[in-house]
Amino acid sequence: MKFSNRANVTQLDTFDEVIDVRSPSEYAHDHIPGAINAPVLDDAQRAEVGTLYKQVSPFAARRVGAVMVARNIADHIANLFHDRPSSWRPLVYCWRGGQRSGAMTIVLRQVGWQAMQLEGGYKEFRRMVVAQLETLAPRYRYVVLCGETGSGKSRLLEALAAQGEQVLDLEGFARHRGSVLGCMPQTPQPSQKAFETALWDALRKFDPQRPVYVEAESKKLGVLQVPDPLIRSIRAAECVQVRAPLEERVRFLLGEYAFFVEDPAALRRQLDYLRPLYGSEKVNGWLARADAGDWPAFVAEVLSAHYDPLYRRSTHQNFTRLAEALVLELRTLDAAALGQAAAELAARVNGRAAVSVAA
To answer: N or C, which end of the chain is more exposed by having fewer CB within 10 Å?
Structure first.
């Protein structure tokens, strides 16, 4: 379909609203940040039209599809868009800037709204995200929080963000804490594409003149992969070594992972992944502590045997500037202490061009 009222991906931020007319499942997989879903064909309708196209004829598919599209667009105008002013300027997109977004755009323009169709659709947006991650990721001065499991790094990032610092929350975007016990209950991970879109959207909004704080992570967070340009930039960045006493880390983790206490079956499933590394005898010993309700001993043993050695190997192998890290000692990990530590850290980092060894 030829249509003159088109916009390109560089103009995304110039519209009042972005409308994704793809099916709900396509939208859920990934979409332009901030876009609302107003499908011209839902998933069942899209499947029905596709079947007609293959098994009957393209004409039959278009005829049936046209009825569905018309009804759905009418429903959106009557319900979803009924309060939009006459000056409304929406951007409409589908998979590749074809018939679905074209149909919606034509009708919206006929109403009197200044609707535009995204040239190339989601496919072109996705191409831009991949390309811009290559150039955006190396642009910033990252400050990487390194520290053993339970040292409060994620909470420290939250405190930094609350104080107006620039924070890239990889675990938050991935919905995973990046370890064998890092899954978040009742919180499925996004698709790889949605993860990358979230990272792109965050990176493009940062000020290159200010530091970006990020937690030291492995390349893999659950089933997701941190894009290569970003992980390379983070691993080459200056580091902050966050330290906390073992007993405080245990206390902190018991609060952070309380759901495993409530769901011991889930804990067993996750620890089964460690049997090839440590053997059933050791893993069964950890589980015996949990079964007996001795959760502090359980956490301390898993930290000492698995997490702490893994952390030391991983950070020393992957973070090239760890030896010159600024050291941040935390006696306690309550909210007040983390807030104070965040303020002190920001002052130290902002007060110099590069991090040096702490006294």
So the answer is: C
Q: How many whole angstroms separate alpha carbon 104 and alpha carbon 214?
A: 41
Q: For residue 92, what pLDDT is reported? A: 98
Q: What is the pLDDT of residue 270?
A: 84
Mean residue pLDDT across the chain: 92
Q: Mean pLDDT throughout 322-332?
A: 94
Judged against a pLDDT cut of 90, whether residue 60 lies above it is answered with yes
Confidence of residue 353 (pLDDT cuts 50, 70, 90): very low
* Domain annotation for the chain: domains and CATH numbers: 6-130 (3.40.250.10), 140-350 (3.40.50)
Judge contact between 277 and 309, C-beta under 8 A: no
Angle between helix 58-75 and 43-55 (nearest 10): 160
Among candidate residues 246, 260, 243, 291, the one with its CA nearest the CA of residue 180: 260
Residue 113 · residue 86 · CB < 8 Å: yes
Q: Which residues pair with 91 in a beta bridge?
A: 18, 116
Residues forming the active site: 94
Mean pLDDT of 125-151: 97
Contacts of 259 (CB under 8 A, 6+ apart): 185, 266
Distance CA 197, CA 39 (A): 21
Contacts of 165 (CB under 8 A, 6+ apart): 210, 211, 213, 342, 346
Residue appearing with tokens 């049997």: 275
- State the pTM of this model: 0.91
